[in-house]
Structures are given as structure tokens and as C-alpha cells.
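Researcher: I'm preparing a figure for a lab meeting and need a structural model of a single chain. I don't have an experimental structure, so a prediction will have to do for now. The sequence is pasted below. Please return the structure as C-alpha cells so I can convert it later.
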Amino acid sequence: MNQKGLVANMLWLASSKYPDDCGNEPRLSLAAWAQCFLDNFATVKEAVAAFRSHPFCVVSDRMPGVNRYTTLHLSIFDAQDNSPIFEYINGKVVIHEGRDYQVMTNDPEYPEQLAIQK
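Model: Understood. Here is the structure written out cell by cell.
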């Protein structure tokens, strides 16, 4: 949580696939993804608008000692109960945004979590 009340959470998402080629987009380590939002924004609205207008490319690397990449999805919350969930699926970011998206678990992808809930 930052001093403005923005909260970030990251959980495991085995099916995450980050971009193979970031093109000209700036790169950001998966390890700094949540911190980037906490350092730069006070609200979800600001964070999502900035990400959509100036996207960055999240990159991952192999976990030490295993032949597997770190794969996570991210949620952020603000004092107004706004909450998007960011997932990298097939190399592209998907943002689920709104007050209806308040709870995220580890696997599976968010649309599947919603289907299970129903």
C-alpha cells in the first residue's frame, strides 16, 4: 500500500504469457510491476489511464533452479473500491476493470474464475 491508499497484489497465474518482443515499448521487470503502480499513482483511474496511454512491456525470467518462468497476475485497489486486474494472456495485457472485480485468486485466468463463481 502506498501513502495515498493504493494497494497492489500479485498472485500466481501459470498460464501467463508475456510478450516475446516488446518492440519500442519500455520494458519493466515482473518483479517491479506492482511497485511501479505504487510509486507513481494515487488512484486506479490514474493508473489505468496511464497504462493505456503509455503502456510498458512486462518481462519475466526463469526462476532460479528450475526451467520455468515466473508468471503472475496483478490487482490494484484504491480508497474508492475501484479495482482492475491485469493479466498477460498470449503475450497481450488484458485488463478487467470495475467494482465487480474485487477478488482474485491464484490460477485460473480471471474469466474462468468468474465462471466458477457463477
